[in-house]
Amino acid sequence: MRRSSLPMVACRVADTLIARGHHGVIVSPDTPTSSAIDAARAFGAHPSAITTAQLFLLDNDPVLLLVAAHHQVNLHRTGPRLEGKLTPCPTALAERVTGQPITGTAPVGHPTNLPTWVDTALAAHREIWAAGGHPTTVFRTSYRELIRITAGLPVDID
């Protein structure tokens, strides 16, 4: 996808990726994807290689969890691993904090750096796919690179 055809929010994500040493290539699937399974099918990836960027409040402060699409965040188990109380972040706050629509939230490209944790289940894949800041955009990366570009910490999510 040419940069001129990317939504502005995806251009910000691409710029952030490049600034952090990633190739910065953001693509759109040929057909719309409304689920992780659709996205995986579009890119020839396993569904568990799709990461979702989910905002939560950890003791009232916004945090970002990058979660393998097949995992559900158990607030009662994951919160203590992050050393606090984890609660869902209201959609309006999540969109304000990230500057991105909730259905296309990327791991990077937010107005401020968010404390970030990355699901260790993603390490099982050579390549993973993440949203590019807009519901129709994604980028390819690896678990190690995702940790690096987000300054994230590994965490077991279940």
Molecular structure report:
The protein has 158 residues and is of the alpha/beta class. Helices cover 27% and strands 22% of the residues. A hairpin with a 2-residue loop joins β1 (50-58) and β2. It has helices at residues 8-19, 36-43, 75-81, 91-98, 143-150; strands at 50-58, 61-68, 86-88, 116-119, 128-131, 138-141, 153-155. The longest helix is centred in the N-terminal third of the chain and has 12 residues, at 8-19. The protein contains five helices and seven strands; from the N terminus they run ααββαβαβββαβ. Strands 1, 2, 3, 4, 5, 6 and 7 form a seven-stranded mixed sheet that branches. The protein is globular, with a radius of gyration of 14 Å.
Features:
alpha/beta, 158 residues, 7-stranded mixed beta sheet, 5 helices
Task: Return the string of H and E elements.
Answer: HHEEHEHEEEHE
Structure summary, number of beta strands: 7
Strand content: 15-25%
Residue share in helices?
Answer: 25-40%
* Average pLDDT number: 92
Shape: globular
Can you describe this structure in just a few lines?
This protein has helices at 8-19, 36-43, 75-81, 91-98, 143-150; strands spanning 50-58, 61-68, 86-88, 116-119, 128-131, 138-141, 153-155. With 158 residues, it is an alpha/beta fold.
